Automatic annotation (TrEMBL):
GO MF annotation terms: lyase activity
Keyword Ribonucleoprotein in record: no
Claim: Translocase is one of the keywords in the record: no
Organism listed in the record: Aporhodopirellula aestuarii
Official protein name in the record: 3-oxo-tetronate 4-phosphate decarboxylase
Amino acid sequence: MSERELRERIAMHGQSLFDRGLTAGSSGNISVRLPDGMLITPTNSCLGRLDPDRITKIDNVGNVVGGDKPSKEAFLHHSMYQSRPNEQAIVHLHSTHSVAVSCLANIDAENVLPPITAYYVMRVGTLPLVPYFPPGDEKLAGAVEQAAKISHAVLLSNHGPVVAGASLESAVNATEELEETAKLFLMLRGEATRFLTPEQVRELSK
C-alpha cells in the first residue's frame, strides 16, 4: 500500500472512530509504520477531521520530515514499535469504558480484563496495565516498551488503551473489541458471570 493510501486510511478510520464516540475532542492518535519511519496523527488534531496531507511523517531517528507537528504521544508509538517489530500500526484512544476500567482499584495489573468473549481473546488476548505517568512524561515510554513485550495491547492507568496490529485495520478492530469488552466488564460487575475457562482460552489461542 502506498504512503498516500495509508494517509487516507488513517483519516478514514479516525473519522469512523470519532463519529462513533470512541474518541472525543483532540484526544487519541493513530500511527502506521513505514520502511523509513512512521506516519502519525498531528498534535491537537481531531481524529474526526484529519487532513491526509497534514498527517506527520517521522523518519527512523525521530526527525519530522513532513506534515504538521506530531502528536506529543509519538514516543508511545515508537516504544511499542521497538518491542513489537512485526506490528505495522498503533491506535491509542481515550475511549470511555476502557479509561473507566483503567481507573478501577483492585484490577489484575498483569491481565486487566477477563476472557468474556471468544472475540476478545482472539483479537486482544492479554491486557497488561501500565502504571500512571503524567501526560507527556517520557518515563512512560519505558513502561510501555516493557509491557508491550507481553502483549500487542496495553492499558495505561487513568489514561486509555494503546493497541498495535499487523495492519491498521487489525489495530482498529482490536481497539474496538477492547472497548466493547470493557463496557461488558463494567455492566457485569456485581453479577455472577460465566467467563471462558482456561481450556477454552487455550483452544482459541492455538
